[in-house]
Records
---
Amino acid sequence: MGRCNAGRTIRLRGEALPGAPAGPMIRPWPGGVMVPRAACPVAGLAVSVSGRAPAGTVWRAESGGQSAETQRSMAGLNIAVKGLFATPVAAIELPDSAARNKELEAVILARRDASASVQASNAGGWHSDRDIAAWGGPRVAEILTLAQSAATKLTADRDGNPVRPAWKVMAWANVNGPGDSNICHYHPGSFWSGTYYVADGGCASDPALGGEFEMLDPRGPGPGMYAPSLKFAGEDGQSAGSAETIRPRPGLLFLFPSWLYHQVRPYRGTRLRISIAFNLGL
């Protein structure tokens, strides 16, 4: 598993997301990816996107380890680096999550007690039907409204202009107990997918419990096949041909492209890992 060490992020700022509670966003990216802290300049929520360096980014060539002749030939030269084919993954830390999650947990566990699990990507655990928007109550509606607002901010037409898609929402709940996981899969028929964490089962404070959300490089293992000991320099290079993870934390909402292969690692705790997952399509 690689780590992103460059610390560059693309930040989308502006008006608060509709329906968002007031309060600052907590910046550190969950799991293994490092993102610098920054204050949220507006009430409500901002969105952080893990992405490549934007066009026009210039890296100055370093001379360490090079011969004097090479250093002279490189003097004054700039290397322009443009990250291509980025895969955006957005994380939003929702404030005031304790009260919200207490209500959500009660509703979800009551539903689990009353209905059998759907068999989808879940290896063990309980997967609800895909109608949580109908039976989940106002707290679920709140989460899904925020998710749609974030997705709209992260979506543009082919010329880069803002758009306002009329998202069609499908959502469900997942409850994983000891030993449960979700096998590698993607979500066809959707544009954005995402997850909101109601309870982490202790994963946030104890990495030994596993349960991480793992995203696989969409290029597959190709970038690591020829020379596994080499990686691309710069942002996100360490994960080329590998994977990145997000460690669950109550109150965390994140979105990713629906075509991105992902899985949930086995949970090794003794409590419950509870989440709401959703698809946004057209």
---
Amino acid sequence: MKRIPAVFTAILFLFASSIFSYAAAETVDLTILHINDFHGNLLPKPGKEGKPATGGMAYLAKMVTEEREKNPDGTLLLSAGEAKATRALLGRLRLELGQPAGHDELAFLWVVDFPVFEMTAEGGLAPAHHPFTSPQDVREMEAHPEQARARAYDLVLNGTELGSGSVRIHDPAVQRRVFSVLGISDEEAERRFGWFLRALRFGTPPHAGFAVGIDRLLAVLLDEPNIREVIPFPKTQTGVDPMTESPTPVADEQLRELGIDLRLATRAAMEGEGEAPPG
């Protein structure tokens, strides 16, 4: 069964009159239906024994009607397209619409149930966080890896992510099963992560990690939209540190020790004969 064509993202705005009230509204009552999640029911099906056909646009109209009856004063968005791109765009829309005018009130939020894996452009699987994040259910991960949930969490304050973390895998057998889902053989795992896997075999206790960005927290508390204003010695947008005037040129002896060579254009720029090309 074919999915709806992924024409990047198409968003249809229903009940458009309410969309303009977002800026002034204290709360936004928003419902989103991702059409691809219902693609099987959106394909017309012939009726049986003289009954009318089902599915198709009639099914979509039924869904819209039901949502409107649940919340006649709310706003409904329909999205269609490749799921990852669509959800990313809708996420930015949600952040824009939900951004508070100020930070007089502090609303903390834990975000949980992150996926263990995400789909790559080639159709394979890749770690959504990192390959050492503990899954909530190992058997579910092996049976339905695209639906598996990780023991990971984010802390959000007034729409700003303060920090993130996860429970790590401490059992070598579980780690091997995660690698297997990712298509990483025992030989490749030993070659790439041997030092880590050997440490697990010594009996690593259950452990987790989490860190809060103090600069992000200060930006919210001070109602400062530009995070660089709360960092003592911020770098420029090109990565230059004005206080230490770094980065500075590296001696040829150090480059040779590391087996690194510089392109001629880069050397010329370092000597003041021009600007280094990007990349």
---
Amino acid sequence: MIVSVKHGMEVVAKMKFVSGDIDLILNEAYRLTNSIDAAWYTNENIDIPDKCRAGCRSTTIGDIITIDDKEYIVESMGFKERNTLAKISIEKVLYVVEKYGENDYSLWVTETPEDINSGISVRGTKKEIQSEVLVDLSPLFMQVDKEKMEL
């Protein structure tokens, strides 16, 4: 089976695994895309895009590992199948958008805002982030754009 790892919206690694336990595969894909004893992107057994050959960050919270068309989000402890996000009640969820630069945003989604380590986050353009959620985020984008202009 082919396993891919995305940092934000970009695939940074692809690898082949023999069929097996999904949890073991997720953990191994995570381990292989983290620089522990050496830079992970120098591993000859991983298919890495040319732009990552000179350097690429390690896999972290909010990144996505895809196995057989199922996406799993890296969490602070373990992984969560991505389609479970659509089941979260909108009334109980906090959406936070932060602007870093021209068309460079971060979205943090959580059910427990008092815990800064909870939830998931994604970074990208407005279009990329909006495509990740079922909620219209345009009011949040308008607010952070306005605040950034006032600074």
---
Amino acid sequence: MKNSSHGRNDFFVAIMKNKKKVKKIIMTISLTILASTVQAEPNKKTSISAREKPDFTDYPVKRYTGKYHIPSGFRKDKDGFWSDTFRKMTSAPTVNFSGKYFLSTHSCGTSCRYYRLTDLSTGKDIPIMNMFTCADPPPKTSDGYNYMSFLYFRPESNLLVAQYEIEVNGSSEDIECRERLFVLEKEKFRTIIGTRLYCNDWSK
């Protein structure tokens, strides 16, 4: 026991005599651990931003410039205003999505809307827009909230952004926004970013 105690005393004496060296060693170890931790932890903000906020120009497509084939049911009155099959006012047919398509918005009453996608190079309707329809009763999210959908798109891009205004607590005054991103491929939508609980500004 005496020898053991003497050995411990010699150890602590040695440390006290070399305090500067010990501090330097401890500092070196700490910096090494910190550096390895930083290298192992990627810049999450940068990687997520690059992956989750693509630009419309990332999905380019050549724009159709030939003759337009007007969607069935669309009519233009003597004053130049357009109406749809149900005589509701709508925008004039023009290429506004994915190179050759006319993506039109139609009213069907209060808080009710549906979308129609027409290939203006042929006049063919592409029946893939029902997922964005909002009618009565209103559609609900998987967690039970009513929502209204709004779409963002460009004439020379295959990218489509769907934003959903959610009525939190059943109140139209308490709105939460969610969004989901798609690309149009062979007349079908492919999800590239699943529903997330916030919305970006796509109006610019």
